[in-house]
Design a protein that fits this description.
Pnp Oxidase, Chain A; 9-stranded antiparallel beta sheet; about 190 residues; alpha+beta
Amino acid sequence: MTPDDPIARFAALFARAGQDAPFDHTAMSLGTCGADGQPAVRIVLLHGFDERGFTFYTNYESRKGRDIAANPRAALTFYWPWLDEQVRAEGTLARIAAEESDAYFATRERGRQLGAWASAQSRPIESREALMAQVAEVEARFAGRDVPRPPHWGGYRLTPARIEFWRNGAFRLHDRCVYERSADGWTVRRLSP
């Protein structure tokens, strides 16, 4: 029987993926497409999910941030080879509330907080030494006090319109179910492998 709620189904699978995981089970591929139509995919970490969608954090001025500003439609994929299962979600990205970003930023290790200020993510830099000099400058600026969240850094939430669950099957007869959001909630269909 296929559950009616894809978020509940994801939660159960995500919990199973996290048990004795040989790799970080929060890692997901995020695909975006900028104004120029060029797609880009990278790995980001999931930092939360609920009925509203899937949340991650980044520099708003990074390539992914610029892509999202130009085209908020995106896709993400989780693949857990130790389970031989994957989940794909497609939908729209939007920034989360500043208060949510502030709360998460406050939980980050200080070094990561400083790095968020020091790095002009995705932009060219002269050298590794130049980056480390920027880190030292930021460290001096915030010496002896809490590091606030930079205005150019925060969270996005992908609100899914479609979520697909895939489990490897013998002879490539995979088990696939897709959930699509409608005005009445979610509809689910089984897909041919």
